[in-house]
Amino acid sequence: xxxxxxxxxxxxxxxxxxxxxxxxxxxxxxxxxxxxxxxxxxxxxxxxxxxxxxxxxxxxxxxxxxxxxxxxxxxxxxxxxxxxxxxxxxxxxxxxxxxxxxxxxxxxxxxxxxxxxxxxxxxxxxxxxxxxxxxxxxxxxxxxxxxxxxxxxxxxxxxxxxxxxxxxxxxxxxxxxxxxxxxxxxxxxxxxxxxxxxxxxxxxxxxxxxxxxxxxxxxxxxxxxxxxxxxxxxxxxxxxxxxxxxxxxxxxxxxxxxxxxxxxxxxxxxxxxxxxxxxxxxxxxxxxxxxxxxxxxxxxxxxxxxxxxxxxxxxxxxxxxxxxxxxxxxxxxxxxxxxxxxxxxxxxxxxxxxxxxxxxxxxxxxxxxxxxxxxxxxxxxxxxxxxxxxxxxxxxxxxxxxxxxxxxxxxxxxxxxxxxxxxxxxxxxxxxxxxxxxxxxxxxxxxxxxxxxxxxxxxxxxxxxxxxxxxxxxxxxxxxxxxxxxxxxxxxxxxxxxxxxxxxxxxxxxxxxxxxxxxxxxxxxxxxxxxxxxxxxxxxxxxxxxxxxxxxxxxxxxxxxxxxxxxxxxxxxx
Length: 574
What we know:
Elements: H1 6-27, H2 32-43, H3 54-74, H4 78-83, H5 85-108, H6 115-124, H7 130-139, H8 146-171, H9 175-214, H10 218-239, H11 244-256, H12 261-286, H13 289-294, H14 296-320, H15 325-335, H16 340-351, H17 360-372, H18 374-386, H19 396-404, E1 413-416, H20 420-431, E2 436-440, H21 443-451, E3 456-458, H22 464-469, E4 477-480, H23 485-498, E5 503-508, H24 511-520, E6 525-528, H25 529-544, H26 549-560, H27 564-573
Parallel strand pairs: 1-2, 1-4, 2-3, 4-5, 5-6
């Protein structure tokens, strides 16, 4: 009997259990990630029954976090992050300090822990998970707004602080000289990585992907994007001491500055979702229910530090920094949890003998419990924000929004496909100075349009990210000229799901496609090329044979409304 390799079995079992528990969570009207966490507990080594390989799952989880942060970086511009630095730098620094001191106060109450180990314990309770926060904001459609930009700036600064923490913890045994040297080295490596990405990466990465895109192979482009994301992340971790996830995030930010960003995001999204699920399963696998039962009070207090120190502290600091209370509540609720970096710091401190292994359970419960409670945290913080006075700067929100979206299309037409049909439709719209955006998946053709000053997005419109980038929710008309029927249907379904009032016209090839559009939208228009050619010839023939122009036109209009078979039968009957 053939036995599956352990890694393959772990991957299959992990994904299957994640799906089942994620579906169950969804049916209970809870976020799927709650189901993923429970799935991790079920297949983890600390519960009886089937268990999967923890080391393999952790590796896949790190890949997932890297891809997730790469995707987030693709949607953000460096100017967006710089715009929130005035809030993120003082706010995140103060929040990490507050949470660390609260956690240290809890640890100091335990026997045998000095100030140094207590501060390390506090730091593990102070760093929010970027993967959890971005997923929570994405589910609430807040990731691309002001809350998302503030949260990302906050999380990036937290990640930089924890990188320093990961360097300083093992260096602590070397005395003050060792700590100072390690800190300087860490700062120098971070600065070197940032300079390399801004000076070299900003030019070479888009240039390389541009050449791959011009080859016309979508699979090669997808492979190149994943290789860039994980390659930069691996290089950042190996040579610069930067976290894998942070390296991937900066790779995304650099690529997001180019016009390749939207399609790169669309190509990697399925991988992000799959590996992100594995990440949450890996978090659940770490939890040992017995370790929580051994120290229930400490575990509950650690959870309280996460919710009040990280979440509550963030809310108060943001309001103090004159962020609107509703936005502050959203950011604070998304950050009221801990995750991957806390686990790395925890294991490092336990391995160095700085923290006792008995504190692993309280730290894990602080993460597990905070993530499970996120739906309630969002509601509680929103209710609290509603009672707070709004002392935000009057122009704050509008200025940030304008900076993030400098050219926001409104009431425009979206032309999908710039072939023989699309080129004429676009020319007609531009002749009357009507706003239009073209979505074209041929890289060379898209480059030609951009050189001519035509607003164009390169990418495949069957992916929702491309339609979102084209502003489908604010569009007035969708014109689909794609040659493949299934692609046209997919585009129409995605567009109408995002904007139910959108008018649609489609290039069709068969009567079934015309009937389908009429069923979808009775006010839409489906045009069959062969039929229009036939009707044009028929109109010419009728008039040449002596039929009056008005009568010929009415005949053509009547035939246009009929199926081809019906028209033939009507002609024979006559």
